[in-house]
Amino acid sequence: MSGAYFFSRPKILKRRPVPYYDVMPDEEKSVLDGSGLKVMKVGKWLGSGYWRHWVFAMPAMWAIFAISVIMLTLPIIPGEVLAWDSVCGTSSMPLRPGDSSFPEEIAALSERLMELGYQVPEMAVPPTSYDQALADVVRRFQADHGLVPDGIVGEATWQALAGEGQWIVVSTPGAAPKGKLSILVDADRLRLTLYADGVPYKSYPIAVGRPKDDLLSPVGEWKIINKGVNWGGGFGTRWMGLNVPWGIYGIHGTNKPYSIGTRASHGCIRMYNHHVEELYSWVPIGTPVTIVGPAPKISYTRTIKMGMSGRDVVYVQMKLDGAGFEVHGADGRFGPKSAAAVEALQKVYGLPVDGTVYDDVYYILGLK
To answer: In whole angstroms, what is the distance from residue 232 CA to residue 213 CA?
Structure first.
């Protein structure tokens, strides 16, 4: 088992019976459809009288209720009516002078302006805010491209930065693969490969999470649980959400096609819009997605019991599988199969059989 990888790639058991397409980065064209972000509109349903006064008298409870509803309905709300201010580091809000909420967006803005030949002032690394000096450069860029020179970096400015006003919509998919589909995301090689019946069918260049422990793309075995069209902004034209238990992650398009082939996101998998449109048209909800790549630093200190979830659970599950104690999927959720695998290990090593993961189990698995 090599250092950075915790999963073996799907084995190729026979010669490729179907065409295999490998889309190389040097064949790419910057594409983006430029559609606006659509948001959910809440109707006038609060009513009147006592209920209305109670709602506005209890803002904290109302906020908790609203967040709970959104989290519970996320898998079933269509993408065209769902908008998040920030998911996997992609902001739907414009950058304004003085803003310090999205340092990665500010860094990407500065880098792209320099690539286009604009003189950008030196900034802290990582940048702490969108200061006036950088805003002045943005205003010059906006004026050069026929935009309102207000220094506010919204959808139109991101579009101009990405392709200097040249936007192409490519939405006609190629030949659909046949058989059982699965996806392998290689965060080290910056490639996403679609498999049909265990045979690689097509490979795409991608952008993955930044090389920081809290921003790495989530290694594990996941499934696509929701799909959405035209989220706009940093999500591009398509979204496919994954069932990662500790955050909101997905495979999506981008309004920064120049970031493809780099480590630029907060963990999501970015694709060119025409690529994600093709993949979206082929893969159904429930498609397995395996992500391999660098492991974050994890403190294996807590006792893991039935019902718990997290990154540490993923690596415990992988180690159990590697030691011959089958878990049937490293999905970060410690359920009955994971507990049964731990019990089997405890019996072999003469430990109390309770199905929980504690220091002795961590040591046996080589995690401590």
So the answer is: 28
From the list 252, 266, 274, 275, the catalytic residue is 252
Q: 140 φ, ψ to 5°? A: -65, -45
Phi/psi of residue 64, nearest 5 degrees: -60, -40
Active-site residue, selected from the candidate residues 88, 266, 268, 275 = 268
Amino acid at 72: L
The confidence score (pLDDT) of residue 285 equals 95
CA nearest to 282, candidates 196, 199, 223? 196
Give this prediction's pTM.
0.65
Q: Which of 320, 315, 230 is nearest to 5 (CA)?
A: 315
H or E element, residue 181: strand 181-186
Reduce the DSSP state of residue 343 to 3 states and report it.
Answer: helix
Q: Is 88 a catalytic residue?
A: no
Q: Which residues of the chain have pLDDT under 50?
A: 1-19, 24-57, 60, 64, 67-86, 89-91, 164-171
Tell me what pLDDT residue 30 has.
Answer: 33
pLDDT of residue 257: 86
At 101 the pLDDT is: 72
Cα distances (Å, whole numbers) of residue 97 to 131, 146, 270: 6, 20, 27
The domain at 181-292 falls in which architecture? Beta Barrel (2.40)
Domain ranges in the chain with CATH number 1.10.101.10: 103-162
Measured distance CA(88)–CA(110) in Å, rounded: 20
Topology (CATH) of 103-162: Muramoyl-pentapeptide Carboxypeptidase; domain 1 (1.10.101)
Q: What pairing do the DSSP bridges indicate for beta strands 181-186 and 288-292?
A: parallel
Tell me the pLDDT tens digit for each residue of 187-234: 999 999 999 999 999 999 999 999 988 899 999 999 999 999 876 667
| Residue spans of alpha helices (H) in the chain | 50-57, 59-73, 103-115, 132-144, 155-163, 273-282, 311-322, 336-348, 359-364
What does DSSP say about strands 249-252 and 238-242: parallel, antiparallel, or unpaired? Answer: antiparallel
